[in-house]
Write a structure and sequence with these properties.
elongated
Length: about 375
């Protein structure tokens, strides 16, 4: 009678011939590999991997340690907005740019763009094309630069005539306040620059037989500009000298502009910055102030502007900051706020000056052009 051993497969007995049946999913007794049924998915369908809560995009930022650190410092100083982090897709550079744009708008950006075309730039070097223009290896040193894309156009003659009728020294006082406040932070091209160019052209032409026609700046300058302006102490009494309502608004705007501009001192350039800027051209003018349209001052400006792009111009303003030092960042942004408030006050004052109604940069204005980039 047949028998089984412990190592034999299970036998099924019946009245028929006895045969050996392998268990389902058992290994092949010859090839010793897994059965095909073990390699197929169970059930009647295939399952796809679930991607819920898996980020669809990953970002890698190389060499942006300063921007990353600055973003955190701005957030800690309540200068940056937490909500901008998601809107900028968690990009530290874009987050800082959004913060700069917001800061400008909070301190008069709309008024600035009405009259001025300026760019605010954040960089790790003063100029990457200059010798020594290497970023700080520790990622601490940053610079805020202010560059004009074009010069604001200001016609001062009608305003000076109006103020001179109120008091002989009022016109020149207004002019000094207006140009001095703007010139503290940006470069202005006016009759003094044109006079310097006239002298330079005469020096070049000296000894030459050929005569050059040089636009007469002195003939385009009103006689009131030769008078003495009121001193700082006398400026407090300016309002009492004016009875005309339009003139009062102009004097009030000039005094407010001066106070805004003088709130903080302009940062001094370090020796390192001056060394890197040694081969640059002078800053581009952020404003052109003429006494009348198409006068001699404008003629010299147009002539000189042909050489503005021959070399790298020095920025109008450089604000150095340490991205790892909250106090340094706070100070730089406070100074930037003063600059913005000064330019906004200047823009509003230009709106009050007669003869400047059409010289705006708003895209909505009939005679305007698009405003400059903000960062």
């Amino acid at each position: 009678m047949p028998t089984t051993t412990a190592n034999s497969p299970h036998l099924v007995t019946s009245g028929r011939r006895r045969t050996v049946r392998l268990q389902r999913n058992a290994a092949c007794p010859t090839a010793r590999v897994a059965a095909a049924t073990c390699l197929m998915g169970s059930g009647t369908h295939l399952l796809t991997p679930c991607l819920d809560r898996v980020p669809l995009e990953h970002q890698f930022h190389a060499g942006e340690r300063a921007a990353t650190r600055l973003a955190g410092v701005l957030l800690g100083l309540d200068i940056a907005e937490p909500g901008d982090w998601q809107q900028t897709r968690r990009d530290p550079t874009e987050y800082v740019r959004a913060t700069l744009n917001r800061w400008i708008d909070l301190h008069g950006g709309k008024a600035i763009r009405r009259r001025f075309c300026l760019r605010l730039m954040l960089s790790e070097v003063v100029d990457e094309y200059l010798e020594g223009g290497e970023p700080d290896p520790d990622g601490r040193r940053l610079y805020l630069f202010l560059h004009p894309d074009s010069a604001a156009y200001v016609v001062a003659g009608p305003t000076l005539e109006l103020l001179e009728r109120e008091h002989p020294r009022l016109a020149v006082t207004f002019y000094r306040l207006f140009t001095g406040a703007i010139g503290r932070w940006t470069r202005i091209y006016d009759f003094r620059d044109a006079e310097d160019r006239v002298q330079m052209l005469r020096d070049w032409a000296e000894g030459e037989e050929e005569q050059y026609e040089i636009a007469d700046v002195a003939g385009s300058t009103p006689s009131c500009m030769k008078r003495d302006a009121f001193t700082v102490r006398g400026q407090d009494e300016l309002k009492t000298l004016v009875r005309n309502g339009e003139a009062q608004a102009l004097i009030k705007g000039a005094l407010e502009l001066e106070r805004a501009s003088a709130e903080v001192a302009r940062p001094e350039c370090t020796d390192d910055i001056r060394e890197q800027l040694a081969d640059t051209d002078p800053p581009l003018p952020a404003a052109l102030v003429v006494f009348a349209e198409n006068d001699a001052i404008e003629a010299h400006f147009e002539d000189e502007s042909q050489t503005f792009a021959e070399a790298t111009p020095e920025p109008n303003l450089i604000l150095p900051l340490n991205a790892f030092d909250p106090e340094s960042v706070r100070s730089a942004f406070h100074t930037l706020a003063v600059v913005c408030q000064t330019l906004a006050a200047a823009s509003r004052l230009i709106d009050l000056m007669p003869g400047n109604e059409k010289w705006v940069t708003d895209s909505e204005a009939d005679h305007g052009s698009s405003s400059g980039d903000r960062s």
